[in-house]
Design goal:
By secondary structure, this protein is of the alpha+beta class. The protein has a four-stranded antiparallel β-sheet, covered by helices on one side. The longest helix is centred in the N-terminal third of the chain and has 12 residues.
Amino acid sequence: MLRELHEVVAELQDSVAPLAAAARAGMRVSAVEVDLPLDMALVLRGGGCTLLADVPRNLADASWNEEPNRLQFTLAATPAGQGEGA
């Protein structure tokens, strides 16, 4: 079942939160790059458009789609005061 894209991104972000435990073990993780295939659909809802997405659940269901959509982003630690708008 497809979900709103922001829900998928938030879940992916939450999945890397346990990497903070690595800091306690002396390892520093400064960034995580994500590159995943996505099933996507644009739907009309509430007078606007909503982008629904999720990771593919079954390749057989999407075999007609030779090149799946991809979600690519980087989660990076940025020192306070160095982000946008600072």
